[in-house]
Amino acid sequence: MEKPLDIANENRKYVLAVYVLQALFFIGLLFTPIMGVIINYIKDEDVRGSWLESHFRWQKNTFWYGLLWFVIGSLTFPLIGWVVILVASIWYFYRIAKGWIYFADGKEMYQ
Questions:
Q1: Beta carbons of 69 and 33 less than 8 angstroms apart
Q2: Measured between alpha carbons, how far is 21 from 15 in angstroms, rounded to an integer?
Q3: CB neighbours of 107 closer than 8 A, spacing ≥ 6?
Q4: How does pLDDT run along the chain (111 residues), one tens digit per residue?
Q5: Contact at 8 Å (CB) between 73 and 92?
């Protein structure tokens, strides 16, 4: 039987892959965050109970709230949408950077 630490170490690659996929959004690969959130949902059960679960939750929240704000920004673009998209982009970048740093340090994310 595997220990929880072994399971977490085995699944670290998925957390890293999702952070990379989310970051690729900034070079114009708009579909990569979708691939990342799909990985989150597929591997969710595998990380349950480990410190990686908090990163999956952080990544999913980053994706869904980011999508929400980008859609709102797009719908209101001629007026204030560009400000909404700018703020959402900074927030999205911050979430990826913070999560990646915590992951590299072996720390859990908080919500």
A1: no
A2: 10
A3: 51
A4: 455 566 667 899 999 999 999 999 999 888 999 999 999 999 999 999 999 999 999 999 999 999 999 999 999 988 899 999 999 999 999 999 999 999 999 999 986
A5: no
> Which residue type, as a one-letter code, is found at position 55?
H
Q: Which residues contact 78 (CB under 8 A, 6 or more apart)?
A: none
pTM of the model: 0.89
Q: CA-to-CA distance for 78 and 55, rounded, in angstroms?
A: 35
CA torsion 65-9-24-91 (nearest 10°) is 30
Contact 15, 102 (CB under 8 A): no
**By the 8 A CB rule, do 19 and 59 touch?**
yes
Predicted local confidence at residue 88, as pLDDT: 97
Q: Could you give the angle at which helices 52-75 and 4-23 cross, rounded to 10 degrees? A: 20
Asked whether 57 and 83 are in contact (CB, 8 A), the reply is no
